Amino acid sequence: MSQALSRRQQGWLMTAGGALIISPDALLIKLIALPDQDILLWRGLLTALGFSLIVYARHRAGFFDAYRRCGMTGIGVAVLFSFSTFGFVLGNQYTKGGNVLIILASAPLIAAVLSRMFLKEHLPRRTWVAIFLCLLGTSLIVLDDAGAGSWIGNGFALLAATALAANFTLCRTRPGVDMSPMLTLAGLIVALVAFVISGFGASLTVPSPESMVWLVVLCLALLPLGFTLIQRGPLYLPAAEVGLLMLMEVVVGTLWVWWILAERPSALAFMGGAIVLGTLLVKGLMERRLERSRITALKSPQETLKQGRAVC
């Protein structure tokens, strides 16, 4: 049990670290300033290359085995991850960014329902409370940018949230199998579809040198590293908790835009960010305290037994 509890800590660190690494995503997309189909094409190609380099660095001689172990489940993970990418990018094109983020914040709730239905996973009450508090906090962050928007855009955002939640839930069906290598395939799917949408390259534009630098930083480095860590989260945590920790990206990403582009968040946004980060901090401290209590409870009978043997 102590080993399982240690793995849980690893899951928290990996997922939270991954969310922090990808947090400049929205900022860098603003700095790149390319049409959506161009961003999707470069994002797909560069992330596929970045993911494959990470797989090679981790597995070396076992490079191809890392992909084979994922099996058909891995293909499903890749397709779902590509759907979440399309939903996020196209959702921002057809509706307000605030709507997209609010709907994306429902991913942990969707993951909790899917895990309950298909995996029979029971979440403790504290996790449900944390999910609803973070959903409230995220809503406050983007309240100024939210509105009726477009049903098409809201639908794309819902597709992104559902695909993300389903991805994490699907990973839980293969315990002990790392599905992160299949994000390479997801990048290739995104690039291929973007190439077709662009009229097989007819409407693509050549990025400026500055935009190309930001594309390389974001898509070849930050996204592959961050999402590799996040995709490994379901190895250690329930799908709902992985989605919950990803909300850190919304909070920190808002701060990045404020710092670099001087787009000052509203007072409500600050309050929402405090609710999300405070909730995650309190939940993390509670989990750590419970973990220590369980370890102590496990050690006590063993120590009593050792003392009895010493007396004999």
TrEMBL record:
Membrane-spanning residues: 12-33, 39-58, 70-91, 97-115, 127-143, 149-170, 182-206, 212-230, 242-261, 267-286
SUPFAM superfamilies documented for this protein: Multidrug resistance efflux transporter EmrE
InterPro entries membership: EamA_dom, EmrE-like
Record carries keyword Transmembrane helix: yes
Pfam families the record matches: EamA
A cellular component term, taken from the record's GO annotations: membrane
Keyword terms of this UniProt record: Membrane, Transmembrane, Transmembrane helix
Residues covered by the EamA domain: 13-142, 152-281
PANTHER family with a match to the protein in the record: ACYL-MALONYL CONDENSING ENZYME-RELATED (PTHR22911)
Protein name: DMT family transporter
